[in-house]
């Protein structure tokens, strides 16, 4: 009887060990999968950002400012922190001489993404100067 009880205890501990191994494996697999999925999402966002950068440059080069504003606003509805959409919306406002609107977006972009400082700081300085030297154009 005690041999059977010892065998049952051994089987119990083997099952506990197997359960522990599977638990550790699934935790590890979920962490790895989360990282892989995050990397894929980051790659997709990078592709979207690069695509919008190209589109934004094309609109600016062709002087299609209203179209650029519409595209940027559309992207910002679902991705409010999209750096390129914010940048090109600010550039559109800048081209339309809407200094206050451009300055606000440039400053927000710089505050949220400090790495954009070199790109937007000259525009911030220029919009401040334009606002202080004349009547700024406001959004209606």
TrEMBL record:
Keywords: Membrane, Transmembrane, Transmembrane helix
Keyword Transmembrane helix: yes
Membrane-spanning parts: 13-37
Name under which the protein is recorded: Uncharacterized protein
Record organism: Exilibacterium tricleocarpae
């Amino acid at each position: 009887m005690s041999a059977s009880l010892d065998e049952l205890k051994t089987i119990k501990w083997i099952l506990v060990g197997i359960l522990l191994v599977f638990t550790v494996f699934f935790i590890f697999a979920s962490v790895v999968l989360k990282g892989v999925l995050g990397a894929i999402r980051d790659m997709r966002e990078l592709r979207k950002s690069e695509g919008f950068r190209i589109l934004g440059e094309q609109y600016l080069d062709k002087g299609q400012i209203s179209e650029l504003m519409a595209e940027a606003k559309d992207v910002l509805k679902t991705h409010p922190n999209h750096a390129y959409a914010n940048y090109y919306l600010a550039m559109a406002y800048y081209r339309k001489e809407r200094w206050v609107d451009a300055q606000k977006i440039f400053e927000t972009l710089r505050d949220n993404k400090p790495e954009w400082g070199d790109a937007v700081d000259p525009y911030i300085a220029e919009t401040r100067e334009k606002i202080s030297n004349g009547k700024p154009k406001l959004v209606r």
